[in-house]
Amino acid sequence: MIFRSPVHYANGLIRPSSAGLTNPREVARQLAFSRREFLRSAAGVALGSALLRSSLPARAAVSPSKRKVVVITFGGGARDQETFAPEGQENIPHLVRELIPQSSFFTQVVNRGILGHYVATASLATGVYETINNFASLPPESPTVFEYFRKDFKRPASDAWVVAPSNGFNRIGESSNRSFGPGSGARVILPKYLLSAATSGSADYGHLLRDSYETPLYAPALGGKPFELEEMERILELSVDEFKSHAHTLSSPDELSVYIVRQLMRRLAPSLLWITMHDIDIAHAGAYSLYIEGIRRTDRLCAELWQTIQSEPEYAGKTNLFILPDFGRDSDDDAGGNGFQHHRTGDALSRTTWMMALGPGIREGTVFDRGVETIDFVPTLGALMGFSPSFSPGKPIPELL
Ligand SMILES: [Zn+2]
Questions:
Q1: CA of 189 to the centre of ligand 1 (A)
Q2: In this predicted model, which residue has the larger pLDDT, 335 or 272?
């Protein structure tokens, strides 16, 4: 048996290590405890509990028919030592100073599914641990949140959208489940696909066009019918020339996604809008500085989107924003991995993520460290918005209701 001395954070707390503990639940619990203490000291949040029923939200909830929901997956996965731990907080100043004080923050959101970006994001969107091949162009097998939402509320296609980073995500908006027919889910916009078509893959835009960071040789297949430039011009009222010239000013694919999201919010104001960030996943290339740059950019873009929500009349005062990662990354001391670079070991640290919720009806500045699962997310949205995610085995999170 190998004994390791515990690794301490700057504030003296012991950093959970999958090498030192054998019980994944204990690792997850310790990680949640550390996050809670970091947030209490850095963001001044209070400790909540399921019994805290007397603590009312700062802003009253809006009626389900008027409520809008924006979901951001904090994509690619980041570890605590580059984010919530004392030495990482300089990389997420917007989350720590602006968003967390306004949010209910859950420190222990466990993903018990497959740690591939497409299949994990599909699991988040269905409330079921999907087992589809992460690298195939397949729809989720269980109904998506978009299908539940549209069917139960009889909403048109224009009311639910996904903006995603990779061709491999093109089918995430609609499941293969037969209870829902073709065209009953969300349209997916792939900004990189659009930019590639607009520029014929010009090298000038190369930094915005790389589809996947997993391996240099892997190129995800494009399945289903993509949202095309002609639709961008007609539906988003964005000309190809304007799109190209604005893209030229941007530094990353996630910035391009946020640009498209803003067009969607202004033109269609969908009630359910899902944005999958992915810049952080550049960590697979092995350059720590690029990984950190990705975290800082994602931190800034999350805050910018929250500001956009406050400034758009269709969204201000009636929108809940949820930010959560698909999963984390490997720890430095796991012999089966290569540190921050990948998410291959499936250890408890890379499975134990977090979630923040903001907006009307949500308790502000409150942290909860009770364990929940990623498949609880869709049932929680169902309980908040009023639709029935009947295929999900997850449970609504009572602290958000
Ligand atoms: Zn990855």
A1: 20
A2: 272
